[in-house]
Structure formats: structure tokens, C-alpha cells
Amino acid sequence: MSANILGLHHVTAIAGNAKKNYEFYTKVLGLRIVKKTVNFDDPGTYHLYYGNETGEPGTILTFSPWDGIRRGRIGTGQATSTSFSIPEHSASFWLNRFQEYDVIYDNSSSRFEEEVLTFLDPDGLKLELVSHSSKDERKPWSTSEISQDRALKGFYNVTLTLEGYEGTAKLLTELFGYELADEHINRFRFVNKNSETANIIDLVCLPSGKRGSVAGGSVHHIAFRVANEGEQLEAREKLIEMGYNITPQLDRNYFKSVYFREPGGVLFEIATDLPGFTADEEAENLGQELKLPEWLEPRRKEIGNVLPKLS
Length: 311
Ligand code: ZN
Prior knowledge:
The chain is of the alpha+beta class. The chain has one domain (8-306): 2,3-Dihydroxybiphenyl 1,2-Dioxygenase, domain 1, CATH 3.10.180. It is 16% helix and 35% strand. The protein has helices spanning 18-28, 91-100, 166-174, 229-241, 300-306; strands at 8-15, 32-39, 42-51, 60-65, 78-86, 109-111, 114-120, 126-131, 155-162, 178-184, 187-192, 200-205, 219-226, 250-251, 255-261, 267-275. It binds zinc ion (ZN).
């Protein structure tokens, strides 16, 4: 019955000011911008993709920045924390860096034998850096200030905060190839058997928690990986058999997507690895130019005039 899900593909969140978002993720955190495009449903707005050197699935955090957007409310039915894997012993470097750049952060804590550093982006989006002992050979992007032995390697896990967790746990274990690996109080850790990285989902059960609302500083959806369209359509059929309402396959230019709401209320996407971010620019030039889908090319000048400058 299991679908061939390969862990996380990307996480999409909502930001306010585009320039602040760009500066924070590329400079302070040192991620690479791997695609600069527009929101296909609202072409006057960017859709920015940050990732590792090659923009691999499992490293991609994306944003639609809307200047002046109200803050969302963090609560149940949401992905409440997105965590990146960092090399062991690099947490002190990041603590110093957060002080230097006035980032709001918490002193590091430990969770399931890992060192976790929690912090907020300029819109209040909750992020974590996790130093751990499991193998992670993904090649990070490095910058003049952040060397490879300190740089973010891609996602470690995502935490979903839910009123009740059983329905989501059933979906993860029965269809998505995850197994319950650990638990502590109300946190349940599920690990995907088909991948070695970006393969953890934590479910935090908060029965009396207030429902979250998605706006600035919150996650809009999380996407899981499949290798190709065949695997995606198979997963889609199985979800329909399980009674889910799921969208038709949509073309996102760099991957194909289907979306559905999981039982805890979080919007899930299943996205293909292919064609990837080199579909319309060379690997060495990723993220340099504004890329538009074909049907928006005739409006390039007009769109370029509306979009704010990022640097
Ligand atoms: Zn998505």
C-alpha cells in the first residue's frame, strides 16, 4: 500500500518584505537563491526559492513575500517549525552569528540527543538548526562568511502541531513510508525509511491548542518528494482510495505537484524531483535572473517594473 515518498521536497512559507527576506536567507543564513520567479497566481509578487548548491529536493525553502501582510497566528493545524541540518560542533558559530545580526533566538536545547538552536526569521517564522550525529553528505552552499563546515545542509525535520495526531500518524506510516522512531511527552518522531536526509516529521499533539492561521511568518504548506510523475500519480490514486480530496496534477515548472489537506489540517503537497531548477538555467547561474513561465514572458517588462529590488 505504501507510496514511494522520499522525505521532504520543500517547505513554502509567507513573508512580508521581499528584500528583508532575501537578505536574511542569503546573507545571514547563507542559503543559495536557486530560483527567482513570480507567484504564478499573482505575478506581481516574487516566488523565491532558497536551497543548497544544486537546489536539491529536501533543501528548498520557498517564500511568497507580500509587503505589509498581517502576521499569521501560530497554532494547531500548522507546520510550526522548520529545521535545518548543520554540521556537528557548528552551533556556537551560529549563536555568535545570531548575536551579530540581531536575530531573535533561544539558547540551544537538546531533543532526542540532538542539539537544537531555535530562532526566528524577520517575519517571525520559527526555524531551527539541528546538530546531530547522523550521516548527512549533502553539499551546502558556502559564502564568504559561512564556510562549508558550518553551512546549512538542507532540512533535518519539520514539526507539525496538531490537535490530535492519530490520523496524521496513520497517513505517514500507512502510505508515506514513515515509522514511529521515538517519542517524548507529546512529541512523536516519524522517520522515512526510503531516504537518509530530510526524512523526519515530528508530530506535536496539543489538544487544547488554539488553531493557527496562515499569513506572514507562517508555513503555507510542506511538500514531500517522489522520484517522478508515475510515482506521483500512484500516490494520488492511493490517497483517493483512502478518501482524500486531492488536486489534479499541476505544473510548477520545476516540479509537478498535487495538493491535499492531511487529517490534522496541514496542507500537504507531493512534488516530483524532476525536472528541477536547472530546467531553465545552468547550475552555476541558478537564481541570478528573473525566470518566468512561458505564458508570462510577454509581460516581462511590466512584471519587472512592479517587483521590488532585492539587493
Ligand atoms: Zn509547494
